[in-house]
Amino acid sequence: MFARSYALTLGEDIADLGGEVLAYEAWKSAVGDRKLTDRDGFTPDQRFFIGFAQWAWENARAEQQREWALTNVRSPARYRVNGVVVNMPEFAQAFSCKPDAPMTKPAAKVCSIW
């Protein structure tokens, strides 16, 4: 959206990815072998990622977005969410994304924290 220095947000972007990877692993461990059911047309894994996206909803004026692009250490919400899930093969699997889909990266290009 706006040109920005990635150095400004890099630390938070890495933290977002690491946190979501750990949250997913913790959730999978917590549910264990329990049989979770689909609800409202979504699988449990899909609902996990939808829940992650929901915390980042924002509605900001263009002026505010321009200021944040220059000063905020966090990426805009849209990129915080998409930048994380595109690096999680579990997301692509949960939503049956095709290999060339915009929200899918080849395994060799996925950013891995641990």
Overview of this protein structure:
It is a single chain. With 114 residues, the protein is mainly α. The protein has one domain. Helix content is 54%, strand content 0%. The protein contains 5 helices and no strands. The chain is globular, with a radius of gyration of 16 Å.
Describe the SSE topology.
Blueprint lengths: L5 H26 L12 H11 L7 H10 L5 H9 L3 H6 L20
Helix pairs in contact: 1-4
Q: What descriptive keywords fit this protein?
A:
114 residues, globular, 5 helices, single chain
- Distance N to C terminus: 29 Å
* Pattern of helices and strands: HHHHH
Low-confidence stretches: none
Number of domains as seen in the coordinates: 1
Main sheet, how many strands, which sense, barrel?
none
Question: What's a quick, concise take on this entry?
Answer:
The protein is an all-alpha fold and 114 residues long. The protein has 5 helices and no strands.
